C-alpha cells in the first residue's frame, strides 16, 4: 500500500475510533431521573439490554480500531483486516439498528401495545441516547468508506486498470 493510501486509511481509522469512543462515552453517561407521584424513576442505558449491546458493540469496534492502527500495512494479516472491517461494520449496523428501534419507542411510544413515550419525563437521557446514536451512525458510515477504500487498495493490484 502506498504512503498516500496508508495515510488515508489511518485518518479513516482515527475518525472511526473517535466516533466509536464518543458513542460509548455518551451512552454510558446517559442517565436521568424523574419524580412521578412522589415516586422516583430513573432511566439509564444499563436498564435496556439493547443499549448494553450497543455499548459493547461500539467498544469492540473501538478496541479493534485501536489495535489495527498499530499493524503494518505490508503484513500478511492485512487481507484478514479487510474481512474483519466488514464484520465490524456489520456489528455496528446491527447494534445501531437495535438501539434505534428502542430509542424510537422511547421517544414516540407504541399506542397499539400501550407503551407510553418516556422522553417527556427524561429529556436529558433521550438527548444523550440521540447523541450516542448519531456518533454511532458516523462510525458506521466511516467504516463503510473504510471498507470501500480498503477493498480498492487490496484489489487494485489483482485487477489492474489498463489504459
Secondary-structure topology with pairs:
Elements: H1 3-28, E1 31-36, E2 39-44, H2 49-69, H3 78-108, H4 123-155
Antiparallel strand pairs: 1-2
Descriptors for this entry?
two-stranded antiparallel ribbon; 4 helices; 2 strands
Brief synopsis:
With 163 residues, this protein is mainly alpha-helical. The chain is 68% helix and 7% strand.
Q: Describe it for me?
A:
- There is one protein chain.
- The chain is 68% helix and 7% strand.
- Helix 1 runs antiparallel to helix 4 and helix 3 packs antiparallel against helix 4.
- It has four helices and two strands.
- It is elongated and about 70 Å long.
- A hairpin with a 2-residue loop joins strand 1 and strand 2.
- It is mainly alpha-helical and 163 residues long.
- The mean pLDDT is 84.
- Contiguous helical run count: 4
Secondary-structure-based class equals mainly alpha
Beta-strand fraction estimate = 5-15%
Number of strands: 2
Major sheet = 2 strands, antiparallel
